[in-house]
Write a structure and sequence with these properties.
With 230 residues, the protein is an all-alpha fold. The chain is built from seven helices and no strands. Helix 2 packs antiparallel against helix 3 and helix 2 packs antiparallel against helix 5.
C-alpha cells in the first residue's frame, strides 16, 4: 500500500514537472513571438518615419541651403568691417548683395512649395588650428596675417558652397524636378564660383599688399639667414 502511494506521488511529481515545463515552454514561445512582433512593429514604424513626400524633402534641402546663406550673410558683414584692403571690401560688399538675393530667391521657392523658410544659421566649414598651435600663432600673428587668414577661410567657405550647390542640383535632377528650383540653384552656384575664382586670382595681389607688414614681424637676422640659404 505504501509503495502504491509512493508510486502515485512520484507519478504526480513527474506529471507536474512536465506541465510546468510545458508552461515555461509556452511562455518562452509566446515571449519570442512578442519580441518578433515588436521588432516588426518597430521596423514598420521606422519605415514610416523615413517616408516623406517629394515636396517636403525638397523643402528640407532648400532650407538647408538657406540656413547656409543666413550664416554666410552674417560672416560677410563681419568680414567687410574687418578687412583693410579696399579691393577685398568692395568685392565682399558686392557678394553681400548677391547673398541677399540668394536668400530671397530661396525663400520664394520654399514658399511656393508651401514650406516655411528657415531663419536658422548653419555652421560654416571654417578650419581651425589645434589650440596649442593657435595660442602661438595669436602671439606672433600680425594684422596682415589675420587678413590672410580671413581670406583663406573665405575661400574654404565659398568652395564648400560650390560643392553643396552642385550636389543639390544633381539631387533635384534625380527627383525629376525641373524649372524654378533648378534655375535658382544654378544661378547661386554660378555666383559662388565667381566669388571663389576672384579670391583665387587675387591672392597674389593681396600677398604683395600685405607682405611688408609680415616681413617686418620677422627679425632681420632671420631674413638675412633665409636670403643666404636661397
Amino acid at each position: 500500500m505504501a509503495r502504491n502511494q509512493k508510486s502515485r506521488s512520484t507519478s504526480k511529481s513527474r506529471s507536474s514537472g512536465r506541465i510546468g515545463s510545458q508552461s515555461r515552454t509556452g511562455k518562452t514561445t509566446s515571449s519570442s513571438k512578442n519580441t518578433r512582433n515588436n521588432r516588426r512593429s518597430s521596423k514598420s514604424s521606422l519605415s514610416q518615419k523615413k517616408q516623406i513626400s517629394l515636396n517636403d524633402k525638397l523643402v528640407l534641402y532648400l532650407n538647408d541651403a538657406l540656413s547656409m546663406e543666413n550664416a554666410s550673410m552674417q560672416r560677410l558683414q563681419s568680414r567687410i568691417k574687418q578687412t583693410r584692403l579696399q579691393d577685398s571690401k568692395q568685392q565682399m560688399e558686392h557678394h553681400l548683395e548677391e547673398t541677399k538675393e540668394q536668400q530671397n530667391r530661396l525663400r520664394q521657392v520654399i514658399s511656393n512649395l508651401d514650406g516655411k523658410p528657415t531663419k536658422d544659421k548653419a555652421q560654416l566649414p571654417i578650419p581651425s588650428a589645434p589650440k596649442s598651435l593657435m595660442n602661438i600663432l595669436k602671439r606672433h600673428m600680425t594684422s596682415a596675417e589675420i587678413e590672410l587668414k580671413g581670406t583663406k577661410e573665405d575661400a574654404v567657405v565659398e568652395n564648400a558652397e560650390i560643392v553643396f550647390y552642385d550636389m543639390l542640383i544633381q539631387l533635384v535632377h534625380k527627383f525629376e524636378v525641373e524649372g524654378e528650383a533648378v534655375s535658382v540653384l544654378t544661378q547661386t552656384l554660378d555666383e559662388e564660383k565667381s566669388m571663389a575664382e576672384w579670391i583665387r586670382s587675387n591672392t597674389p595681389v593681396m600677398l604683395t599688399q600685405l607682405w611688408a607688414d609680415i616681413e617686418a614681424s620677422i627679425t632681420k637676422k632671420e631674413i638675412d639667414e633665409e636670403k643666404q640659404v636661397q
